[in-house]
Each structure stands twice: as structure tokens, then as C-alpha cells.
Amino acid sequence: MKVLIIYGTVEGQTRKIARFMEEVLQENGMQVTIANAVEEPPSPDSFDVVLIGSSIHINNYNTLIKNYVEQHIDILNKKPSVFFSVSMAIASNIKEEHEEVAKVAQEFLEETHWNAKTIWHIAGALRYTQYNYFKKLIMRSIAKKEGGSVDTTKDHEYTDWNQVKEMTLNFINRLK
Fold first, then answer.
1. pLDDT (tens digit, 9 = 90+) per residue, 97-108?
2. Chain centroid to CA 71: how far?
3. How far apart are CA 36 and CA 101, in angstroms?
4. CB 156 within 8 A of CB 149
5. How far apart are CA 4 and CA 53, in angstroms?
6. Stretch 53-69: mean pLDDT, rounded?
7. Which residues have C-beta within 8 Å of that of residue 67, sequence separation ≥ 6?
């Protein structure tokens, strides 16, 4: 089975998640092609399965991911596909944060007319060491409200790698 993974990232956690999915799939005999949305990713037409992921920033997904989906919508809607949404809100214990992320994802799918049957919400990371002063203050304030780490001297990863592996394997096994 040939699998295409396309991702859009700002600080790199979505890339890290996509690479992890790539490893899991390759370990299970899949041929995987992975591409960053900024690098003119290949068309999905010669692949059996497509996984597309983006992080949420200010309630929006990566513009290049949106453009890719819109450009290839006819092909994507004919293939098994997954949309994986990466956000810090998923790491929150606040129910409304999870609802907001689900709403943002649903709006994205409606705007692009993508009929992705599978949507994964994956917790991201706080990359304090990569933020400028202003963004560090904002992210620290958000983290404090949601119960995340406010130690800005280091980065904090919230991705549940076992969950990502399980979702990836379950999806592929259903297709087999």
C-alpha cells in the first residue's frame, strides 16, 4: 500500500508527528512518501491512502495545507484519507477547548469540501525556546489557564505517542 503524508508546521511538532507516523507505517510494510506543504508536495493521485496534517494557530490551519486540499479535492474525496489536527488545546482538561478545536476542524473540512471520514486531534508542544518574547508571554498565559507548563526555559511536549501509533495502525489495519 502506498501512503502519502503531507504536513504543515510552524514550530515543528506537526513534522515530528508526521515523521513518527511514517516510521510506524514503514515498520508495517507500507511505502510512504512524506512532504512538507512548503516543498511542493506530490499529487495524491498515485497513492492509495493520504494523511494530511496541520497545526492550529489563532484558530486557523496552515494556508498551504488548505491550498493543497482545495487543489486536490476531487482526488482526496475518492481515497481513504485522514486529517490530523495538532493543537495545544487537546492537551487541555477544559471541555470547551476540545469543542473549539473540533469546530475549527469541521469548518476547515467544510470550507475545503474535503470529505475526510477520519479526523485525529493530537496534542502538540509548547516550544518556548523558539518563541519571541511576545509570543512566549501569550503562550505562557494560555498554558497557565489550561494547566500546562509555564516554565519558559525549556520546551514541553504533550503529544501522546502511543495514541498516535495506535490510531495510525488501526486506520491502516481497517483498510487491509
1. 899 999 999 999
2. 19
3. 22
4. yes
5. 11
6. 94
7. 37
